[in-house]
Amino acid sequence: MHHVENGLSVNDVSVTYKNGHTAIKNASFVLPTSSITALVGVNGSGKSTLFKSIMGFVSLSNGTVEIFDMPIKQALKSNLVAYVPQSEDIDWDFPILVEDVVMMGRYGHMNMLRMAKKIDHDEVSKALDRVGMQSYRHRQIGELSGGQKKRVFLARALAQKGQLILLDEPFTGVDVQTEDQIMLLLKELKEEGKSILVATHNLGSVPEFCDRTVLVNRTVLASGMTRDIFTQENLERAFGGMLRHFVLGGSDLHEDDDARKVTVLT
Ligand SMILES: Nc1ncnc2c1ncn2[C@@H]1O[C@H](COP(=O)(O)OP(=O)(O)OP(=O)(O)O)[C@@H](O)[C@H]1O
């Protein structure tokens, strides 16, 4: 079989919104298989726009996106991409049960009538188990905490069995325990060979669990192995004057009691 090394290849992508604002200009980076990549940048730097470009939700004014060497449409059709959106992009008042949200991950595997088969129910159950949400399966999605909601959408991605997994801010508003649980799960998925892209503000956790980093600010400033990219100089370029100090657990830069958190003064 033809071996594809990159789960995702973003080539010279630019996105200009209808109002004329160019959110991303000439961005390029790749995501190898079996890797976790952090997508890091300040608010408004274009992280969500990049995700939307990869999902085909916005049209590119320049460049191409390839997913396992396929064009976006074909990759989406082949169920290769699982997307965990930002919580703000989800309508939490929509009356739907937890198990039905996770079942949505199976739609791409069903025929047009969307009749769930045994395998679909099994995958939903397995996914709920993996994120520790089995006992909540009959709850309305709106009746969950922020961290629980995140886990349900992660379960949806698991049930979908995508090879490229995109997570937009999965750690916002979750406690440390849930954060650790999500990271552990992502590491397992990496071991299974998946390509994972995680947008995050939590710089402190990046060196610990993301082998690669893409730094963005309206374009890709730097990308590669985290140990090469996570330099004070690069981070200052990404965060500008807003980065007064950052904290890496156990490093010389340690300036804070809570080694896991980064202080970004605005
Ligand atoms: N639909 C849209 N139309 C016009 N401009 C937009 C649209 N969506 C986003 N933008 C602008 O594009 C820029 C990038 O936004 P984007 O949401 O990609 O940033 P982000 O890095 O995800 O930010 P955050 O960390 O705050 O979520 C911002 O200046 C934003 O105002």
Automatic annotation (TrEMBL):
PROSITE patterns: ABC_TRANSPORTER_1, ABC_TRANSPORTER_2. It comes from Marinomonas algarum. The lineage of its organism: Bacteria, Pseudomonadati, Pseudomonadota, Gammaproteobacteria, Oceanospirillales. CDD domains: ABC_Metallic_Cations. Residues 8-243 form the ABC transporter domain. InterPro entries: AAA+_ATPase (IPR003593), ABC_transporter-like_ATP-bd (IPR003439), ABC_transporter-like_CS (IPR017871), Metal_Ion_Import_ABC (IPR050153), P-loop_NTPase (IPR027417). SUPFAM superfamilies: P-loop containing nucleoside triphosphate hydrolases (SSF52540). Belongs to the ABC transporter superfamily. It comes from the Bacteria. This is Manganese/iron ABC transporter ATP-binding protein. The keyword Ligase does not apply.
